[in-house]
Specification:
By secondary structure, this protein is α/β, with parallel strands linked by helices. 39% of the residues lie in helices and 31% in strands.
């Protein structure tokens, strides 16, 4: 059973990521839970003639990650009166999130979804879907339109799914 006492929140700076922050804060606040927010800087290709190197030390990506985490911390403090721990990680997104969740003993992972479908999903993949397959703990996927529906009601955590129904954890 998920208690939402130790939530790992995966952020990427997008609108769905902001929705995931809102949902995680609502769930944690209702249960007195702890949130650890992470931003993963994934290695990027750098072309050198015919040779490709992969670097994860891209200064712009690191600055963006720090800014995203700072905004999340400020929002949690201002809007929810919560203090969240933040960590910028380097590596492949899904394995880094799963490993960090295990390191901190997370009981839930919360992530936003862009809701891509069709060819866009085939070409770009779905981080949320890959995370659900790889994670040993429950993953709550939040669509931006549904963030305000992930709430605490009568001591039971309710999280809206993309189809409008609710997942209950009590």
């Amino acid at each position: 059973m998920t208690h939402f006492s130790n939530i790992l929140l995966a952020l990427d700076g997008s609108a769905p990521s902001d929705a995931a922050l809102e949902a995680a804060c609502s769930l944690a606040r209702g249960r007195g839970g702890r949130i650890t927010a992470v931003y993963v800087c994934e290695p990027r290709p750098h072309l050198h003639g015919r040779h490709v190197d992969w670097y994860s030390d891209d200064d712009a990506a690191h600055r963006e990650g720090i800014a995203v985490l700072r905004r999340a911390s400020e929002t949690a403090s201002r809007d929810y009166r919560l203090t969240i721990e933040t960590n910028r990680l380097d590596g492949q997104i899904v394995p880094e999130i799963v490993a960090h969740a295990q390191r901190i003993g997370a009981d839930t992972i919360v992530i936003g979804s862009h809701g891509r479908g069709g060819l866009e999903r085939v070409l770009l993949g779905s981080v949320a879907e890959a995370l659900m397959r790889a994670s040993r703990v429950p993953v709550l996927v939040v669509h931006a339109a549904n963030a305000s529906r992930a709430v605490e009601k009568d001591g039971i955590a309710l999280a809206a799914t993309p189809h409008g129904d609710a997942l209950q954890h009590g």
